[in-house]
Amino acid sequence: MYLNPALIESLGLAGMRYLGATLLVLSPDAEFLAEAAQRAVHEQRLLRLRNCLLGMHAGHQFRADVSLGPVSAGVLLEVHALASVEETAPDLRLSASLRGLAHEVKNPLAGVRGAAQLLARHLSGNAELAKLAEIIIAEADRLTGLADRLLRADGATNLAPINIHEVIERVRTLVLAEADQTVRIERDYDPSLPSVQADSDRLLQLLLNLVRNALQANAQVIRLRTRIDYGTPLATHAARLALRVDVIDDGDGVPDDLQPTLFQPLVSGRVEGTGLGLSLAQEIAHEHGGVITCYSHAGHTVFTLTLPLGEPHG
Is the pTM of this model over 0.70? Predict the structure, then answer.
């Protein structure tokens, strides 16, 4: 229906008849794009495809990330050309800063853990408070493990078969312990889901970031939903079978001007925000061969984590 001038130039379509044409004018993977567009409309959510080949003519082909979102007239397709090595250099500096931060937080974490252990010894008669002390100890251990991983050169994930619902339940417990009592967290689980090969601590970190984002957006109802997907676009390919986790909230939503860069480092819609949570969450998803997408407007936001099932990934 419409292409903006920048995309027309990039694809080498100037002077050609492209209005009313099929998606073949955009990509040799037109069938894949069409399927993703149909899913975006049917499911009313944003789909993001990574590392797509665009352009049908020599000299005008390039790799880009493509997002497809439902709009009133059909589907809005956005193209984000992949960054060059020079453009990604700030991310390398960011990683070095994170390693420095990891080194500095380990000693305070040890102090927090020790204090929680002392509290736990004096709370044996109060089951509710003792449980909160156990949560503090477990979280201190988890954060120490994450710091150790950042300090290691490889930073490899520890993959093992896990029950995704156990991870989500732990997220729910942690968030309810810190959230306002008026916030409601609902479950909508598919009990038939198989185990997924994943690092449970890394997925916990990812999902905590997504749910805490909902809290910071003033959500009062957060729904945690799990489903199986088929033929789902992931970071680099379409998975025959995938696990989907949706974090759905009724908060303020993501501002339109932030949505194209939402998962980039140092991008935040809050004055006090660091802009690291979502970029780290996306990095964790990619470590597992998966991807996070977002569809948002005021009063209804869906962050979707999709992970491959039964496929090797690194």
Answer: no
Q: Tell me how far apart the alpha carbons of residues 235 and 249 are, in angstroms, rounded to a whole number.
A: 24
Contacts 24+ apart (CB under 8 A), 189-194: 189/165, 189/224, 189/225, 189/226, 190/226, 190/227, 190/228, 191/165, 192/228, 193/164, 193/165, 193/226, 193/228, 193/243, 194/309
d(CA 278, CA 294): 11
Percent of the chain scored above 90 by pLDDT?
17
Q: At what angle are helices 277-287 and 200-216 packed, to 10 degrees?
A: 150
Structure tokens at 91: 């991310």
Per-residue pLDDT reduced to its tens digit, 81-116: 775 434 444 444 445 556 666 666 766 777 788 888
Query: 152: left (phi > 0), else alpha (psi -120 to 50), else beta?
Result: beta
User: Which residues, other chains included, contact 275 with Cβ-Cβ below 8 Å and sequence gap of 6+?
Assistant: 264, 265, 266, 267, 268
Q: Three-state secondary structure along 166-231?
A: HHHHHHHHHHHHHCCCCCEEEEECCCCCCCEEECHHHHHHHHHHHHHHHHHCCCCEEEEEEEEEEE
Tokens coding 55? 């352009």
